[in-house]
Amino acid sequence: MTVEAAAPGAGERGRVARHGPEVVKTHRADTDPAALRVRVQVARWPGLGGVLLPPLAEPAVREGRLVTRWPYGEPVDQAVPERYPWAAAGALLARLHAAPLAELPGPLPAAGGRQRLARAVRRLRGLPPEPRLGAARRLVLRAHRRPLPPPGRQPALCHGDFHLGQLVRAAGPPAGWRLIDIDDLGVGDPAWDLARPAAWYAAGLLPPEDWQQLLAGYRLVEPDAAGAAGDPWPWLEGPARALTVQSAAQEVARAQLEARQLSEAGVALVDACGRIAGLP
User: Fold this and answer.
1) pTM of the shown model
2) Sign of the Cα pseudo-torsion (202, 204, 207, 208, in order)
3) Measured distance CA(274)–CA(135) in Å, rounded
4) Span 72-85, pLDDT tens digits
5) What's the number of CA atoms in the CB half-sphere (13 Å) around residue 5?
6) Where are the domains of the chain?
């Protein structure tokens, strides 16, 4: 599984720039100022120390866009897959999900998982039909027509856009891995935070040992979660289908915009969409 960049894109999307020991993030043009302020307050809440990277300042406005400042953290080294911190990531997610909602700054917005799915599909639909990618596009959109599942657990504080590109190693104190990118932080179904690696595992793109490390790290903190007594898929299957569609829609859109064939990962995700579309 390739580590995804934590801040892709330009224009209406977010941008990140490093300035020595600091990182400055320019947020999406449609970012809600009130929701971002609450998310920043949650990121610096003492009870989540060691889980979320705390900001250096309150959000500001520059040239009409919301901007936040963060300490620099060392990202996951994409060149060394055998050292990807899957167990640490699972433990961080479990600690995030265990945060007491009633004690957090608020009002908390909804986590952004479902909105991200909708944006990815809307972006794909907005592109003109491309004959080379027509079959892939049809499979993704057919899979998207399957209804989304209801929440499988009590609402929790969720990251909303988890992947390994959302981890950095902070200098501390204390030193260690932290979750970054709070743009989709909020209340939601915690299964959606595990759904992207689950989708990649189901599509054959994430090695089984990496998937098991993620689950093991999660269960160290939440022993009764993620199917600890057996199979995690009754909890994860629906969100994993949704993230399969989202990831496939992004891959097809990128291939079309870059005038290239689908990547190997894109082919696997589109094939998975075909299996989803064929379910009874």
Assistant:
1) 0.89
2) positive
3) 10
4) 999 999 999 999 99
5) 8
6) 84-277
